[in-house]
Amino acid sequence: SCPDACDEIPRYESMKAKGNPVPPVSPGFAVEYECRPGYRLIVPLVRPTTTVCLADGTWAPPLQEACTRKSCPQLTEPLNGRVEGSFQFGSQANYSCNEGYNLVGTPVLHCQLAGDGNNVAWSGDPPQCEKILCQPPKQIENGIFSNSHKDIFEYNEVVTYSCKPSTGPDEYSLVGESRLICTGPNKWSSNPPECKVVKCPYPSLPDGTIVSGFGKKYYYKAEVQFECNQGYSLEGSRKIVCEANNAWVPEIPRCVKG
């Protein structure tokens, strides 16, 4: 019996040996290759697909890859969006939507082996690009917003809140964002503001005086600046602001002798 000459069956990315021969094999042993799952023969076929074991342990003829990746069905651009990538087995297609549209479904499809284990197919259904729309934002107490008669708002559309005139002794202040923008499906750029009375106590400063921001009442965002009388120095902040919790920020400073 001849000694075994070839202790390895050549391996290829796109092809596999028919019948799964087990090395070592004797001289003269022929191996025929077929395409791996997900691959097809290159057409027209000019490359050999059979090779023979020689006595010196080499194979002839030396083979080149004779198969190429199968392609999944061509994908069409989604309406109001785009798809990028390649359609070959093992690759992926990435979907995105134009500004003002929202992607519904899976953004990435993979070209993979189909259920039969040989053909290739996309991993799912292509997504769709839906126009971004917003339901009206929330109504607020003591306030209104622009275009409140509309039942739907488009992408980038703006509503502006304002406060109603107060029926009591103090006016309403708008606390928060007055402009809301439709930025995503039923998504506004921020929460609606509040319309409420914000009133800070009268900012008296012993041994000092108010130099700007005089008023009878101090409402939201009112600013006051102080200075101390001669012979006194100021401890704290020269400027204070009336904030939403009805308090001065930072706190009212002090005038210290010396």
TrEMBL record:
The record's principal subcellular location, in a coarse class, is membrane
Question: Which processes are annotated in GO (biological process)?
Answer: single fertilization
**Membrane protein topology class:** Single-pass membrane protein
Q: Subcellular location, in the record's words? A: Membrane
- Show the SMART domains listed in the entry: CCP (SM00032)
Entry keyword set: Disulfide bond, Fertilization, Glycoprotein, Membrane, Repeat, Signal, Sushi
Assembly and partners?
Interacts with C3b. Interacts with C4b. Interacts with moesin/MSN.
Listed name of the protein: Membrane cofactor protein
